[in-house]
Amino acid sequence: MPDARPLGDLSPELLGSSVWPDRAVLEAGIPVYDVPLVSVGGGLGSFTLVDALRIQGAPASSLRVLSNLDTPWQTWAYLSRVSQLPPRERIRSDAGARPDNIWGFPSYALHEAWRDRSPRLLFQVLTEPVLTDFFSPRAETVFATLEREAARISYAAMLAKGQVRMVRRRAGDGYFTILTPPAGATPTKRIAIRSRFVHLAVGYPGLRFLPDLQEFRETHNDYHRVVNAYEPHEHVYEFLKSRPGVVVVRGAGIVASRVLHRLMDDRERYGSQTQIVHMFRTFVSGAHGPGPWMRRRGGDGWAYQAFTLPKSAFGGQLKARIRRADGAGRAELMKVIGGTTTPRLRPWQAQMRAGREGGWYHPVQAVVDRVEPTPDGRLASLTSSDDGTRARHVSDFVIDCTGLEAGVPEHRVLADLLEHGGARRNGAGRLMVGENFAVTGTENGDGVLYASGAATAGNHFPAVDSFLGLQTAALDIAADLAGRGFCARLGPLRSTGQWLRWASGRPV
Ligand SMILES: Cc1cc2nc3c(=O)[nH]c(=O)nc-3n(C[C@H](O)[C@H](O)[C@H](O)COP(=O)(O)OP(=O)(O)OC[C@H]3O[C@@H](n4cnc5c(N)ncnc54)[C@H](O)[C@@H]3O)c2cc1C
Q1: What is the mean pLDDT of residues 144-170?
Q2: CA distances to 237, 379, 396 from 245, in Å
Q3: Are residues 322 and 270 part of one domain?
Q4: What is the total count of domains within the chain?
């Protein structure tokens, strides 16, 4: 029978074997390109790694970023925008978390104070969090500084567009990474990149829906009234601007805060008559956690914390404690410091207070058993509460603010790595990595496969899915690669010289 595969596609031999000899790839007609290191993903995880490597002397020609994105901030910008954080708004990380600047100096607070000629920002960063809220940069500041750094390190020259299908071990050493370039970009369906080092930073595999909401959407084919905060849902706000309505908001994290903020802003700005029913699965009514040092503020349903984790988990004593702890100890500590939180920002507090007093914001403790359509085309959420009360809340919309999917098997490349690449999952179900962020079990000869970002949660470092965490991973990986002779070490002389280059905008 003639071979019906498109030109240069994966052969049954390649699909079925975990270790590929060069011969098998060539026989499948897949063109092979040699690059010493590839980073798969092309988001901020890839960007922070190639930034560190360029600063440590790796030439752009030794690095390739394989991605379906045009810019490293694209996914972050998209998810932020749809989840109600427009570019002018302030994000949720501190002044020193600069993905464009490994030194964190000058901080974003100094940067914005200088740019906007605003001593108020300096006062804020000097007195936070006692007299003022923590300083956070505007999203647009992060985009602009990333754009400048991308140009400085020749990011565009390192980018190869396409969808990565898999990474497999090469017979002998190193890896083959299979990329499907955009249709028509190459004569063959796939190309292979043969490299000694691979880095995976593929972010979140997709959206996560609460099971009852997913069931409703599928059963009633209704993707209009039940929405996830991470998908475009501007129509909800437009509807509520045009007529009075009821919206159920589910979730208690930063995204729920932002969605509420938007609904409340629209009430103030456009006179919307929206009634908001806010459902908390766990209703926090006060400070909680083992005292006196690990207590967290809480109230009105929320657990309050400025950043996704306490600051010392990013680079202080909690980071060190978690690194030293064994598996069970880590899990125990993460239970205390993790969980869903939101910053206690003064403007949001004032809005929620006004809503409670005005009778249009209704925070409730409730677990939703089922969502069903009402005869007049609305939604009924049937709930039960911890005190045994059952209720029925009728609304025009439900906004699910509970999260993104980070399950490793949900991502095709990671699933393939578990099946064929020797990767293992840790107690949190994510990829097990060592302290150098090498994925345990995937080494091949002198080749190393690293990973960073959400897929590596639950290991020695808790803050992996944050700007600072991605940068920490990037610096640890770069240090490991320097030890293997791939790039220079970042000693005091190189660091000072490179900072001066960074400050004056000169290429690395
Ligand atoms: C809404 C939101 C706000 C956040 N705000 C902050 C904040 O204020 N401060 C902070 O420190 N952190 C924040 N984070 C957390 C974190 O810093 C960001 O999510 C960051 O963008 C993660 O970077 P990443 O590279 O791991 O993932 P991403 O930015 O998602 O990049 C990975 C990309 O890889 C690509 N990809 C995946 N699979 C393949 C494949 N097979 N082939 C080719 N390409 C592929 C996809 O396009 C994917 O988007 C936020 C996260 C979210 C979701």
Answers
A1: 98
A2: 10, 12, 6
A3: no
A4: 3
The mean pLDDT of 182-202, rounded to a whole number, is: 96
Could you tell me if 254 and 357 lie in one domain? yes
Share of the chain above pLDDT 90, in %: 89
Mutate to test the pocket of ligand 1, among 69, 76, 452 (most ligand atoms within 8 A of CB): 76
Same domain (yes/no): 212, 270:
yes
Report yes or no: 170 and 20 within 8 Å, Cβ to Cβ: yes
pLDDT tens digits, 402-421:
988 768 889 999 999 999 99
- pLDDT tens digits, 294-312: 889 999 999 999 999 998 9
Rounded to the nearest angstrom, the distance between the alpha carbon of 45 and the centre of ligand 1 is: 7
Q: What is the CATH number of the domain that holds 445?
A: 3.50.50.60
Atom of ligand 1 nearest to the CA of 92: 8
**21 in the same domain as 60:** yes
Band (pLDDT 50/70/90 cuts) for residue 3 is: low
Query: What pLDDT does 209 receive?
Result: 83
Final residue belonging to a domain, choices 405, 433, 449: 405
Do 375 and 369 contact (CB within 8 A), yes or no? no
466 lines ligand 1 (CB under 6 A): yes
Q: Which residue's CA is minimally distant from atom 6 of ligand 1? A: 92
Sheet holding 246-250, edge to edge: 226-228, 397-400, 246-250, 275-280, 361-365
Last residue of a domain, one of 355, 381, 405: 405
Ligand 1, atom 21, residue with closest C-alpha: 76
Contact 317, 337 (CB under 8 A): no
Q: What end-to-end distance do the CA atoms of the chain give, in Å?
A: 55
Please check whether residue 483 lies inside any domain of the structure.
no
- What DSSP character marks residue 177? E
Residues 271 and 347 in one domain: yes
Q: Is the CB of 363 under 6 A from ligand 1?
A: no
Specify if 476 maps to a domain. Answer: no
Indicate left, alpha or beta for 152 from its phi (over 0: left) and psi (-120 to 50: alpha): alpha
Mean pLDDT of 481-486: 98
Residue 84 lies inside a defined structural domain of this protein:
no
Tell whether ligand 1 has an atom less than 6 A from the beta carbon of residue 191.
no
Global pTM exceeds 0.85: yes
What is the rounded CA–CA span in Å between residue 110 and residue 104? 11
Domain span at residue 229 reads 206-285+341-405
> Quick one: 185 and 320 in the same domain?
no
- The answer to whether residues 235 and 365 belong to one domain is yes
Give the closest residue (by CA) to ligand 1 atom 1.
80
Residue 489 lies in a domain: no
Residues 271 and 366 in one domain: yes
Q: Which pLDDT score is estimated for 292?
A: 78
